[in-house]
Amino acid sequence: MNRRDPEGAIAEAARKYSNWGRWGADDVLGTLNFLDEAKRREAVALGRRGVSFSLSQRFDMNGPQNGWGRRTNPIHTMLMTGSDASLGNQGSPHGIGGADDMITMPLQCSTQWDGLGHVFDHGKAWNGRDAALTVTSEGDLVTGIEHMAPHAAGRGVLLDVGRVVGTEGELPDGFAITEEHLDATAEAHRVSVGRGDIVLVRTGQLTRVRREGWGGYAGGPAPGLSFTTAGWLHRTEIAAIATDTWGFEVRPNEFEHAFQPLHQVAIPHMGLLIGEMWDLDALAADCAADGVYDFWLTAAPLPITGAVGSPVNPIAVK
Amino acid sequence: MNRRDPEGAIAEAARKYSNWGRWGADDVLGTLNFLDEAKRREAVALGRRGVSFSLSQRFDMNGPQNGWGRRTNPIHTMLMTGSDASLGNQGSPHGIGGADDMITMPLQCSTQWDGLGHVFDHGKAWNGRDAALTVTSEGDLVTGIEHMAPHAAGRGVLLDVGRVVGTEGELPDGFAITEEHLDATAEAHRVSVGRGDIVLVRTGQLTRVRREGWGGYAGGPAPGLSFTTAGWLHRTEIAAIATDTWGFEVRPNEFEHAFQPLHQVAIPHMGLLIGEMWDLDALAADCAADGVYDFWLTAAPLPITGAVGSPVNPIAVK
Amino acid sequence: MNRRDPEGAIAEAARKYSNWGRWGADDVLGTLNFLDEAKRREAVALGRRGVSFSLSQRFDMNGPQNGWGRRTNPIHTMLMTGSDASLGNQGSPHGIGGADDMITMPLQCSTQWDGLGHVFDHGKAWNGRDAALTVTSEGDLVTGIEHMAPHAAGRGVLLDVGRVVGTEGELPDGFAITEEHLDATAEAHRVSVGRGDIVLVRTGQLTRVRREGWGGYAGGPAPGLSFTTAGWLHRTEIAAIATDTWGFEVRPNEFEHAFQPLHQVAIPHMGLLIGEMWDLDALAADCAADGVYDFWLTAAPLPITGAVGSPVNPIAVK
Amino acid sequence: MNRRDPEGAIAEAARKYSNWGRWGADDVLGTLNFLDEAKRREAVALGRRGVSFSLSQRFDMNGPQNGWGRRTNPIHTMLMTGSDASLGNQGSPHGIGGADDMITMPLQCSTQWDGLGHVFDHGKAWNGRDAALTVTSEGDLVTGIEHMAPHAAGRGVLLDVGRVVGTEGELPDGFAITEEHLDATAEAHRVSVGRGDIVLVRTGQLTRVRREGWGGYAGGPAPGLSFTTAGWLHRTEIAAIATDTWGFEVRPNEFEHAFQPLHQVAIPHMGLLIGEMWDLDALAADCAADGVYDFWLTAAPLPITGAVGSPVNPIAVK
Q1: Cα–chain center distance at D46
Q2: Helix (H, G, I), strand (E, B) or coil at D184
Q3: Angle at Cα B105 formed by Cα B99 and Cα B110, nearest 5°?
C-alpha cells in the first residue's frame, strides 16, 4: 500500500472488490443478499441458552457527538408528563393520565447502521448509480434503509480483537486491524467467519472512552480496520460488519490526507452494510466466559423512508 | 360491565389484575419479567425456515398522524447529500462523498412500544409509583424504555382475529374483541398462548386504511380489545401484546365518556408492554399459508434514555 | 403575455428587469440597497401616533401547512414546566422555578421573508451566482438571511387592493393583481410608492381563510400579483414587498404548467425581498379609519446563518 | 443584604417590588404596560440619522450553548437546495428552482426575550397565578409570548456600564452592577432612564468571549445586575431590560447556594420583560462616537403560541 497514493489505492481496491451488478441492476441490499434463508435457519439454532444482549448505547444528550458534520446528540422532549397528569392538567376522564415524547436526532448520532446511500466514490453510489440522482435533499430515493427492514437477522460472530491482540482488552487509538489480526482472533476464539455472517469487531475503544470520557470518540483517533482488509471483507462474503468505534476503520486513516478510504470502497463498491458505535462489552464478557463467539443476531433498522442510516438496538441471543 | 360506571369498573379491574410488587419494589420491566431465558430458549427454535418479516410500518411524512395530542408524522431531513457530493461541494479528498440525515418524530407516531411510563391511573404509575415524580418534563426518570433494551425477544404468537372472526380478514371499526374471540382464534390457529409470550392481534384495520386512506386511523374508531379482556391479559401471563391499530383497545371505548380504560388498567397496574400500529399483514399471510402461528420475535426498542415509548422494527422469524 | 410561452416570457422579463451587478459583484442585499439612511430618516417620522401593530400570524400547530414541500406547522415543546416547578421536581433552591421551551419549524411555515437564496432561475441565484455553489445542504453560503439583519426597517406602504378593488374587502382566488390595480389602489389611498419603500399588498385572502378554514391557503389558489407586475416592481425601486397570501403571486399562475414565474424573475434577477403570509388585517382596518396608508415598519429577520428565509414579526408604527 | 438568607431577601424584595394586580387580574403584559402610545410617540423621534443596528447574535451551531438545562445551539437544515435545483432534481417547470429550510432550537438559545412564564417563585407565576396551571407541557396557557407581539417597540436607552465602570470597556465575571453603577453610567452618558423605557445594559462580556471563546458564557460566571437593583428596576418603571450576558444578573449569584434570585423577583413579581444575550457592541460603539445613548428600538418576539421565550432580532435606529 502506497501511503502517498490514496487515490490510486482506492481505485485499485474499488476495481478488485466491486460487487456492482452481482445482484442485478436494481439491487438495494448489497451484501445483505448473502444472508439468505438457509443461512438464517442455521443461525437461529445458536440461541442455545436464551440469554439476550442489547448491543446499543443509550440515546441521549450525554452521547459522543460534538457537532462534527453537524451531528448532534439526541434531544428528547416530553409532549405530556406525569406531572401534568397528577395535577389534573390533562382533562382526561376517570383518572387516566398519559405521557408522550418526541426525539430529534441525526441518524448517525449513536449505535447505527450506515445505509448504502451513506458514502459515494467520485459521484457514484452503490451498484454504480449516480449519487446526484440517488441521494438528494429529499433523501435516498433508491437505496433508502427501509429496504433493509426485514433482512438484518442472522448469524453474528464476535471478533474481540481488543482482547486477543490488545492490552487489557483494548487496542490503542490509531491501531490498524489487519487481515492477520482478524484471522488470529477468529482462531483464538475457535470461530469461523463466512458467507452471510454479521461480524462484530470489538476494539475496546468504547470501554476506554467510557472510563476516560468521550474525548475524540466522534471523529478523532481510534483503532479500526486497516484499508488493507478490503480484500478480506470482500472474499469472506460477510453480510455486514460492525465495530464499537465511531468510524469502523482506523483513524487517522492510513493515507496522507485521506478521509475514510475503506468506506469509499466498502459502501459504494462492495455494498457492504456497516455498523458503528455498537456496544459490544457485555456480549464480549459473556463470550469470554463461555468461549462461544457466535450467536443469533437481530439488528433491525427503523424503516425511515429514504434514510441513509438508522439508529439500531441490535439484540444478540446466545 | 356497567357502561355507566367506568370509574368503578376500572377500579375493580385495577384491583383484581394488579401486578404491583410482584417483581419487587424496584421493578422497571413489568410483564417482560415473564419472558425469561428458559422461555427464550424454547422460542428461538421456532425459526425453522429462516424466513424473516418486518412488522414495522415505514416512518415518513405519509403516516397516519393528524396532530392529535401534538403527534405529528416523522420529519426526515438531509444534512449532506449525494447532489452536493457530486458537485464537489463537500471538500473531501480523493473523491469520497457522503450523505447524512436526521429525524424529528414523536416516539408514538408509528409502529411502537408504549413504555411503562406512558399511562397513569389517578396519579399512579407502574408498580404504584407517584406519576408526578416518575415522568417529568425531563422524561421517565425511573421506568424509561432504555431498561427494556435487551428483553423484548421471545416467542411471538399471531392471533389473526380479523381472519377468523371478521369479514374478508377485517373487523369493522368499533368491534370489541373479547376473551372468547381470542380463544376461538387461538383454537382455529391451533396455537397456544401462555406465560412470557408476545401476542400479536391482527384486526385488519391497517389493511383497510391502506386501501381506503388513513382517515381516523390515529385516534378514531377502530376494532380492538374489549375492556373485558383485562382478566385474560392478566391470567395468561403474557409478556407483551401488540395490534395493528393505533390504540390497542376498541374505539370508541365501551364506556360512556371514557378514554382508553384498558390502558389505564394494563399499563400502570399490570405493567403490560403494549405495541401499537404494527404491520402484521405479511406475517399473517404467511401464517395462513403454512398454518404456523408462532415464531421467534425480536422487537427491540431504541434505548432512548427516559423515553415513555419507542419506535420499533419488530422482526419475526419463522 | 403569451400564456403558452412561459419560458420565453420569463426569460424576457429576467433580461429586462435584472439588477445583476447593480450593487457590485459581492452584493448580498438586493433591493434592500434601496432602503438607505436618508430613506429611513424620513420614514421614522411616520410614527406619529405611537400605535404599533404586529403583522405576524401566530406560530403554532394550527397553521396552514399541509405537508406541501415537506413544510409542516411549527412544533413547540417544553423542556421545563410550571407543573414540575410547582411539584418541586426541579431541585432549584429557595423556591425558584423555571420553564424553557423549544421549537422545530420550517422557516417558510408562516409569516416570513424569503431570502435571496430561496429561488433560482436555470441554476442561477441572485446576482448571477451559481445556485449549486451558493445554496447547498449546508445552507446559503453566500446570501444567507443573516446579512439582512439590520436592514429591513423603513417606510411601509399598505396597498389594500382587497378593499379598493375587491368585494367586501376581499379578492377572489385566482385574481391577478395588475399594475393598474396597484396604481388605482395607491391613488385611492392618496399614498405614493417609490424607491426604498416596503410595500404591503392586502388581498383579503387571509381574512377569508380565517373565517372559512385554511383550505388550500398553503399552495392552493389565491389572489396575488400578476406576472405582468414585474416591470412595476422593478421600476418603482421598492426595497421589498409582502402579501397576506402564501405565495405573493396569483395562483394558479397565469401560464400553463408554470410554477411561481414571478418569483423566478423577482428573486434571482431583481434581488427583491418578498414577504409572505403577513397578517395585514388590523393595520388595514386602522388605515381605513384614519386614511393614512404609510407608516414606520420594522421587519427584522432572525439572523439564522445560511438561512434562505426567516419567520418574522413585522411591527408597523403609525 | 444578608448573603446567608437568600430566601428571606427574596421574599422581602418580592413583597416590596410586586406589581401584582397593578394592571388588573387578567394582565399578560407586565411592565410592557408602561410602554404606551404617548411614550412610543416620543421615542420614534429618536431615529434622527436613519442608521439601524441589529442587536442579535447569529443563530447557528457555533453558539454558546453547552447542554445546560438541555439547551442546545440551533440546528438549521435544508429541505431543498440549490445543488438539487441545478442538477434538475426538483422537477419544476421552465427552469425555476428553490431552496427551503428548517430550524430546531431552544427558544432560550441565543438573543432572546424571557416571557412572563419563564420563571416562578414558590409555585407562583406573574400576577400571582398558579405556575402549575399556567405553564404545563402544553406551553404557557395564559401569558404566552404571543401576547407581547405588537408591544416591544419604544425608546431604547443604552447603559454601557462596561465602558464607564469597567476596564477597556469590559466588566470582569462576577462583577455585580449596582444602582450606583447604573446611575453613574446614565450620568456619564447624559441620558435619563424612566417610565416605559427599554434599558440595555452592556457589560462587555460578549466582547470578551468573542475574543476568547465561549467558555462558560452560557450559565457560568458573568458580570450582571446585582440583586440589590430590584428596587431600581421597580422604581424606574422601565418596560424592559436586556443585557449582553446569558443571564442578566451577576453570576455567581450574590447569595450562597442561590440560583438567579433577581429573576425570581423580577419576572413573577414585577412582571419585568428581560432580554438576554443581546449583541450591543456595534450600537455601543456608535453611541460612544456620537454621544447619543437613546434611540428607537423595535424588539419583536415571534408570536409562538404558548412560548415562555422567543428569539429576537432587536433593531435600534438612531
Answers
A1: 21
A2: helix
A3: 110
Q: What is the pLDDT of residues A60-78, one digit of tens each?
A: 999 999 999 999 999 999 9
For residue C256, pLDDT over 90 is answered with no
Q: Does D38 touch chain C (CB under 8 A)?
A: yes
SS3 readout for A279-316: CCHHHHHHHHHHCCCEEEEECCCCCECCCCEEECCCEE
| Predicted ipTM beyond 0.90 | yes
Alpha carbon of B249 to those of A93, A259, B6, B174, B262: distances in Å?
Answer: 16, 52, 15, 10, 7
A84 neighbourhood in chain C, CB within 8 Å = 81, 83
Most A CBs within 10 Å: which of B56, B77, B94, as the mutation test of the A interface? Answer: B94
Phi/psi of residue C13, each to 5°?
A: -65, -40
- Asked if D238 and D209 touch (Cβ cutoff 8 Å), the reply is no
Q: Does D87 touch chain B (CB under 8 A)?
A: yes
Choose among C49, C13, C47, C17: nearest CA to C238.
C17
Mean pLDDT of chain B: 97
Residue whose C-alpha is closest to residue B84's, from C107, D104, C139, A269: C139
Contact B160, B287 (CB under 8 A): yes
CATH topology of domain D6-70+107-317: Glucose Oxidase; domain 1 (3.50.30)
- Confirm or reject contact between C33 and chain D (CB < 8 A): no
Would you say residue D1 has pLDDT above 80?
Answer: no
pLDDT tens digits for D245-283?
999 999 999 998 899 999 999 999 999 999 999 999 999
CA-angle at A38, arms to A37 and A40, nearest 5°: 60
**Secondary structure of B206-226 as H, E, C letters:** HHHHHHHCCCCCCCCCECEEC
With 0-12 / 13-18 / 19 or more C-beta atoms within 10 angstroms meaning exposed / middle / buried, residue D5 is: middle
The single-letter code of the amino acid at A56 is S
Contact criterion met (CB below 8 Å) for B280 and B55: yes
Are the C-beta atoms of A203 and A243 separated by less than 8 Å?
yes
Q: How far apart are CA A9 and CA A261, in angstroms?
A: 9
pLDDT at position A3 is: 86
- Say if C81 is an interface residue toward chain A (CB within 8 Å): yes
Chain A contacts in chain B segment 216-245 (CB below 8 A): none
Q: Check if the beta carbon of residue B240 is closer than 8 Å to that of residue B275.
A: yes
C75 → closest Cβ in B72, B87, B138: B72
pTM summary value: 0.97
Per the CB < 8 A criterion, the answer to whether C192 and C186 are in contact is yes
CATH 3.50.30.50 residue ranges in chain C? 6-70+107-317
Residue C1 has pLDDT above 80, yes or no: no
Those chains having 3 or more beta-carbon pairs within 8 angstroms of chain C are A, B, D
Judge contact between A146 and A304, C-beta under 8 A.
Answer: yes
Adjacent-strand bridge partners of D130: D124
Q: Which three cell numbers stand for residue C56?
A: 405576524
Find which of B81, B130, B137, B138 to mutate to test the C interface (most C CBs within 10 Å of its CB).
Answer: B137
pLDDT in tens, C180-236: 999 999 999 999 999 999 999 999 999 999 999 999 999 999 999 999 999 999 999
pLDDT at C49: 97
Is A210 an 8 Å CB contact of chain B? no
Residue B218, all three cell numbers? 390515529
- pLDDT of A106 over the 80 cut: yes
Inspect the interface and report whether the beta carbons of D87 and B84 lie closer than 8 Å: no
Q: What's the per-residue H, E or C state across C18-75? A: CCCCCCCCCCCCHHHHHCCHHHHHHHHCCCCCCCEEECCCCECCCCCCCCHHHCCCCE
Closest CA to D277 of D224, D231, D198, D213: D224
pLDDT of residue C98: 98
- Residue B141 contacts A, CB cutoff 8 Å: no
